[in-house]
Amino acid sequence: MSRPHRYTVNPEFTNLEKFVWEGLNSTGRTVHQIRPGEDQAAGATPDHKRLMNRPVWHSKSELDEFVSRGLGLKLDDYGTDKSKNALYKAVANEIARLRRAGVLVDLRKVKPSKTGMGIWRLDRTRLERLVYSRAKREIKDRDYSSTGTSCVIFVRQKQNAFRNELLAEYCKRCALCGFKIPEYMIGAHIVPYSVMREEDPRNAMNPANGLLLCRFCDVAFEKGSITVGADLGITVSGYLRDRRDDVVRSWLAPIPAELRIRRDAQYPPDPRYLQWKTDLLAGAGG
Ligand SMILES: [Zn+2]
């Protein structure tokens, strides 16, 4: 049975959400830019003036253009008018979804008399929550790719989802020293994110390229003062081992000779990444 009124996204627009977010985030203008002088209007309160300088969006056609550029569509030679409409409709649909989710707030509702219709303000907290739920779902679905530079919020939320998987995986304990206070823990990449993004972007946020580390161990692991080999053997460098400092000694004391991995681990560290990290350190140390 056909359902003519049901909206379906053209498969070519698979990254639509991402580009709408990016467009709203990175190219939003302030009310001041859209309507110069309005922030100086008589009776504008300090609160109101502050609002005027926050990024907002009001031009749908600019957003359409931004999205079509992001998707690499040249609308002039992109099929018929019908397919252009499909993109515009898809963007409008995405905007409607964001408004329903409270991510886009109509500024008129905030300050009824001062601004016109169709000016939106982004609610960052809600946006992050929305993006986080998608990032979490993608990691669960084994999509470990990182969208790189194309959406800062998305990358950050995927980093959160990556860290949360590792928190669960390592029962909130540092994989090296066993320290256990959740807010001090870092979802550390074995092969650094900057390298992964360039050389293995599909696995940039793969928790098997991660370890849950405390802040001390994170620095030591990053610098190579504590290393983990592909055989999971842990080596603490002389630089740290030879210290006479009691604090350093009590930090290092519980570090085992071999990384302990739970038998039911979902994301045991991949030996290829451990080896890669070893090679990177060897290269850096010259
Ligand atoms: Zn630690």
Give an account of the 3D structure.
The structure is a single chain. With 286 residues, the protein is of the alpha+beta class. The chain has 2 domains: 11-122, no CATH class; 151-285, no CATH class. The chain has 13 helices and 8 strands. A 4-stranded antiparallel beta sheet has the order 1-2-4-3. Strand 7 (226-228) and strand 8 form a beta hairpin. Helix 1 (16-26) packs across helix 4 (60-70), helix 4 (60-70) packs across helix 5 and helix 7 (124-140) crosses helix 8. The longest helix is centred in the N-terminal third of the chain and has 20 residues, at 81-100. 28% of the residues are buried. The structure holds zinc ion. Zinc ion is lined by residues 174, 176-177, 179, 213-214, 216-217.
Question: Can you tag this structure with a few keywords?
Answer:
alpha+beta; two-stranded antiparallel sheet; 13 helices; binds zinc ion; 8 strands; four-stranded antiparallel β-sheet; elongated; 286 residues
Concise overview:
The protein is of the alpha+beta class and 286 residues long.
Secondary-structure-based class equals: alpha+beta
Low-pLDDT ranges: 1-7
Number of strands: 8
Quickly count the helices: 13
Overall mean pLDDT: 83
Q: Tell me the overall shape.
A: elongated
Radius of gyration: 24 Å
- Strand order across the biggest sheet? 1-2-4-3
Heteromolecules bound = zinc ion
Helix content: 40-55%
Q: Span between N and C termini?
A: 67 Å
Largest sheet: 4 strands, antiparallel
N-to-C series of helices and strands: HEHHEHHEHEHHEHEHEEHHH
Return the domain count: 2
Proportion of residues in extended strands: 5-15%
